[in-house]
Write a structure and sequence with these properties.
The complex is a heterodimer of chains A (about 325) and B (about 190).
Chain A (H helix, E strand, L loop, with lengths): L2 H33 L2 H30 L1 E3 L6 H14 L6 E5 L6 E4 L7 E5 H6 L2 H16 L2 H29 L7 H41 L2 H13 L1 H15 L6 H13 L8 H12 L13 H5 L3
Parallel strand pairs in A: 2-4
Antiparallel strand pairs in A: 1-2, 3-4
Chain B lengths: L1 H59 L4 H16 L3 H22 L3 H5 L1 H36 L3 H4 L31
Classes of the chains: A mainly alpha (about 325), B mainly alpha (about 190).
């Protein structure tokens, strides 16, 4: 599959998933309309459209604010920016994405932006302190291939849809629980609506998961191809796996994902951002990703990672 | 009558496949062209840095004429290269010549301490990294393009339609880019 074909297949898949989300949204709005009031159902759809558009336009800055990613001055961390530049050239991106820094000790990275020309890569200070140059480059290549494959666009859409569906379901649920249903609706419709409101956010989550897991393997493979070095990617993943700060982070994110109450809107929005940013949640286990790279590259990682100088020392921020 | 319809159907199908395949070839060729443009930009940047570098070194080591000539010749060879293959070779030659120039510079502490020199050295290292990045992308696109051009059925039609295999950008010994470094500029 060439890159262009991959991008097109990604677009097709995005189309299908967006269609799934729209369907889900219609079902939820329909339930609101049936169980409560028809005008409320229409209002929910209008609200969803407005909210969705607003979120889409604002997504770039919203993600930056939620992750705490800071823009860099023109002379700051030049070696890091050069790495991103080189990786983007090797990836064949027309424009080098911006680099932003998140002051966080957990090693992590993310990519954001609807179009490749207006994207950025966020990197935590913890990542710079944990990774030597070769592995950092692999992580950057992973994020750059997310941008190249239009994954960032897709995941932003998915996050917005999931958020809006959770919100409407939440309002619907509360209205049913406290406000009582309208007289017209029968008991069956009421039960159906309540079940729908409870399940809808999970359905949205599943839709999103179905997207992101495959994307991660693709981005890993993309990074290996960009650098012509699958071992670097595998080493970076193994290092993330061994890192205790990252494990703490991972557990927290996974807990968000599964245990979290879908009735909390702030939480579900947070979850959306975390899913974009985190290497862990909604991602296949690191082990499986390392295994896939080992198989593709025909190598075997050593038990222990070789000691190495983290890139941060080269940047002078150790 | 039925056979006629089947025949027409097959023709239409073949036509659709042909159009799709042709468009794919055009797309692949465009990727190759973009990839080559990326390399070209970086090669240009590299050759642009050299006069300045030679002048800087000459300021401290005027009598090392042989090395300057060699670098200048190697630079001209890169600029005159007409195909990816020769460009890669010339570029590798330039790397060797620059290696010699930097080895000469070793002997002049004042030169090494000069800010201008270390800036140029830093830029050159960066350009070399970028050339090798651009090469990876270009070679990958050439690989994809050539694979299609060489496989059936395109091996029969590609040439008459004007799709020729492309050259890789690679030269012997080019894979390990010699490190231009004595004391990494970014670390100090």
């Amino acid at each position: 599959m060439t890159l262009q074909e991959q991008i097109r297949s990604n677009r097709l898949r995005s189309g299908i998933v967006v269609f799934g989300f729209v369907l889900l949204l219609l079902v939820i709005a329909g339930l609101v309309g049936l169980a409560l009031d028809l005008s409320l159902g229409v209002a929910a759809l209008v609200f969803a459209a407005v909210y969705g558009l607003f979120a889409l336009i604002r997504s770039r800055t919203m993600i930056a604010r939620m992750t705490g990613a800071q823009e860099l001055g023109p002379e700051e961390l030049k070696p890091l920016r050069r790495l991103v530049e080189n990786v983007s050239i090797a990836a064949g991106l027309p424009v080098t994405p911006e680099v932003r820094i998140v002051d966080d000790s957990a090693p992590n990275a993310f990519a954001a932006g609807l179009r490749p020309e207006r994207s950025y890569v966020g990197v935590t200070t913890g990542l710079l302190r944990a990774m030597p140059k070769r592995e950092l480059e692999a992580v950057l290549a992973h994020e750059v291939s997310h941008i190249r494959n239009r994954d960032t666009y897709l995941m932003t859409m998915a996050t917005i849809f999931a958020g809006v569906i959770a919100l409407i379901a939440d309002v619907g649920f509360r209205a049913m629980a406290y406000g009582g249903r309208s007289r017209k609706a029968g008991a069956l419709v009421a039960v159906l609506a309540i079940v729908g409101f409870i399940l809808a956010p999970y359905a949205a989550l599943l839709l999103r998961m179905s997207l992101s897991r495959r994307r991660e393997f693709l981005a890993d493979a993309g990074a290996a191809e960009i650098l012509n070095d699958p071992e670097a990617m595998a080493l970076a993943l193994r290092r993330l796996e061994l890192d205790t700060t990252s494990i703490r982070y991972a557990e927290a994110s996974v807990a968000h994902l599964w245990v979290e109450s879908p009735t909390d809107r702030v939480e579900s929005e947070r979850r959306g951002v975390v899913a974009l940013s985190s290497w862990f949640n909604t991602h296949p286990p690191l082990d499986a990703r390392v295994a896939a790279l080992q198989e593709a590259g025909g190598f075997q990682l050593p038990e222990r990672l070789p000691p190495d100088v983290p890139f941060a020392s080269e940047l002078g921020i150790a | 009558m039925l056979w006629l319809w089947i025949f027409i159907g097959l023709l239409v199908l073949l036509g659709i496949l042909g159009v799709l395949g042709y468009n794919r070839l055009v797309r692949l060729r465009m990727e190759v062209d973009t990839g080559w443009a990326n390399i070209d930009v970086q090669l240009q940047r590299r050759t642009d840095l050299i006069p300045n570098l030679v002048e800087t070194v000459r300021g401290y080591a005027a009598h090392e004429r042989g090395v300057f000539d060699e670098v200048t010749r190697a630079r001209a060879a890169v600029q005159q290269a007409a195909s990816p293959g020769t460009a890669a070779e010339a570029n590798a030659g330039l790397t060797v010549a620059l290696g010699r120039l930097f080895a000469v510079a070793e002997a002049y502490p004042d030169l090494k301490a000069s800010e201008n020199f270390s800036q140029l050295q830093d830029d050159l290292t960066d350009t070399e990294d970028k050339i090798s990045a651009a090469r990876r992308y270009y070679n990958a696109t050439v690989m994809r393009f050539n694979t299609v051009v060489q496989s059936i059925p395109w091996v029969l039609f590609a040439r008459p339609l004007g799709f020729r295999e492309r050259e890789f950008f690679s030269a012997e010994g080019d894979t390990a880019v010699p490190q231009v470094s004595f004391g990494t500029a970014s670390g100090t």
